[in-house]
Amino acid sequence: MSNEIKKLIEAGLFIAGRPLTLEEIATLCKSGNMGMIRRYIEELQKEYISRDSALIIERISEGYRMSVRKEFEEHILHLAPETEIPSAVLKTLALIAHEQPIKQSDVVKIRGNRAYTYIRELKNQGFIEAKKEGRTKILITTPKFKEYFQIEDIKSISD
């Protein structure tokens, strides 16, 4: 039984293409025992390490994900599919990241009225957060943005 659950966790992490929360993994396994699910994930992590796999299972702020070890990324990155984020949304995110903190009204002035839709999508995906300030909002990137794009220091990019 435990082997089947571990296989299900492994398959779920592989196919999701995004981090899965412990709750999502437990639901996938039809189990309410979070401690048991966490132990199975830890066992899987150790198995990947012990066989010196190019893949790892890691815990990040949003949950658990399966990814390629850092030393292999540069060799296989060109094989990755195009980003799931549409170009216009990505340009809006780049503007916010570069200018942050930035007023939402300034983003709209630069990117046009569709920026409201892009900003809503970026907030829903967890890449930015908005804090109310007067009649506008102040936009900044989140830790998820840094993790997703593997950026340690946002200021070093604009230098």
In short:
The protein has 159 residues and is α+β, with helices and mostly antiparallel strands. The protein is 55% helix and 16% strand.
How do the helices and strands line up, and which of them pair or pack?
Layout: H1 2-16, H2 22-28, H3 34-50, E1 55-60, E2 63-68, H4 70-76, H5 87-99, E3 102-103, H6 104-111, H7 115-124, E4 128-133, E5 136-141, H8 143-148, H9 154-158
Antiparallel strand pairs: 1-2, 3-5, 4-5
Helix pairs in contact: 1-3, 5-7
Task: Describe this structure as you would to a colleague.
The chain is α+β, with helices and mostly antiparallel strands and 159 residues long. The chain has two domains: 2-78, Arc Repressor Mutant, subunit A (Orthogonal Bundle); 87-158, Winged helix-like DNA-binding domain superfamily/Winged helix DNA-binding domain (Arc Repressor Mutant, subunit A, Orthogonal Bundle), CATH 1.10.10. The chain is built from nine helices and five strands, in the order αααββααβααββαα. The strands form two sheets. It has a three-stranded antiparallel β-sheet with strand order 3-5-4. A hairpin with a 2-residue loop joins β4 (128-133) and β5. α1 packs across α3 and α5 crosses α7 (115-124). It is elongated.
